[in-house]
Write a structure and sequence with these properties.
- The protein has 308 residues and is mainly alpha-helical.
- It has a single domain, classed as ADP-ribosylglycohydrolase fold.
- The longest helix has 23 residues.
- The model has no long low-confidence stretch (mean pLDDT 95).
Length: 308
């Protein structure tokens, strides 16, 4: 994947923005299912009735937008800048769905604690292995799709600001690698295959996420998403190993169909906004903007102001 030609930075930014739009629409779509009775959610899914607009995105999109903004300004992950931006956005809108651990970390960063200390002190010094690093990592993979060594380093850097635990970082690396595969390899593969997961495993540290992702290779893509999620996890534990394997399996299952990918992701319940954010951020790199229905994109609350 190490290219011999220089890719213009604007092209990298366009790919990162494409991934962010797929992520944010997925995030807002998934979030809209949290506040309806289960029977209504099941009916919507069975009949493919989208929720009424507007769809509001969560911290997943807010933090992913900060990553894209960081890449656009610096051409890489500047961790000090990114940590400050995360804390600033949290202080401005603390009710975007941040988890308790993230709230504590971002509050302490905002109060002046160095991000390395804030991220390292949680869970008795082990750091967070949550899925937050993974949900914002696809734009990093899209940007650095042509340089795997740099991709792995930058994905790790984007995660460690809040996820000090190696498995939290592994989740981010896995999603970034999957994004790079979608950019560079999808056209050469069958629409439904495990090739993307095989590629990710070949370059991923062997943490718990790696082992759970390896299990995903044994699950046929014809299997129902709910059955797959019952084996791999649906994000209900809000940790990388319980979220990333199913999301990558789902992205493989629907690599050429953004809408079906999101219906499958939301249908397994669990951490629906994050599942849909990760899946959407990957599949849209294969389908392009034409894969996102225009009414879905219009239903998502405006995003552009977060990038200025």
């Amino acid at each position: 994947m190490n290219a011999s030609t220089v890719i213009p930075e604007q092209d990298r930014l366009n790919l990162a923005m494409l991934s962010l739009d797929g992520l944010s629409v997925g995030d807002a779509f998934g979030q809209s299912f949290f506040f309806v009775p289960p029977a209504v959610a099941d009916s919507r899914q069975a009949e493919r009735h989208i929720p009424p607009p507007p769809w509001f995105y969560t911290d997943d999109t807010v933090m992913a937008a900060a990553v894209v903004k960081c890449l656009g300004r610096h051409g890489k992950i500047d961790q000090d800048w990114l940590a400050d931006e995360f804390a600033r956005e949290y202080r401005r809108e603390p009710d975007r769905g941040y988890g308790g651990t993230a709230r504590g970390i971002l509050h302490r960063i905002g109060e002046g604690m160095p991000w390395k200390d804030a991220a390292a002190e949680v869970f008795d010094g082990e750091g967070s292995c949550g899925n937050g690093g993974a949900m914002r990592a696809a734009p990093v993979g899209a940007w650095f799709h042509d340089d795997l060594k740099e991709l792995v380093e930058q994905a790790k850097r984007s995660a460690v600001v809040t996820h000090f635990h190696p498995d939290g970082q592994a989740g981010a690396i896995a999603v970034a690698l999957a994004a790079a595969w979608m950019v560079t390899q999808l056209d050469n593969q069958r629409p439904r295959s495990h090739c993307m997961i095989e590629f990710v495993l070949a370059h991923l540290p062997q943490t718990e996420t790696w082992w759970r992702l390896k299990k995903a290779l044994t699950l046929p893509l014809e299997m129902s998403p709910r059955t797959a999620a019952s084996i791999l996890g649906n994000g209900s534990q809000v940790i990388s190993s319980d979220t990333v394997p199913f999301c990558l399996w789902c992205a493989c299952r629907h690599a050429d169909d953004y809408t079906e990918a999101l219906w499958s992701a939301v249908g397994v319940q669990g951490d629906m906004d994050t599942n849909c954010a990760i899946v959407g951020s990957l599949v849209t790199l294969g389908t392009g903007y034409e894969g996102i229905p225009a009414d879905w994109l219009a239903a998502r609350e405006p995003l552009q102001s977060r990038l200025s």
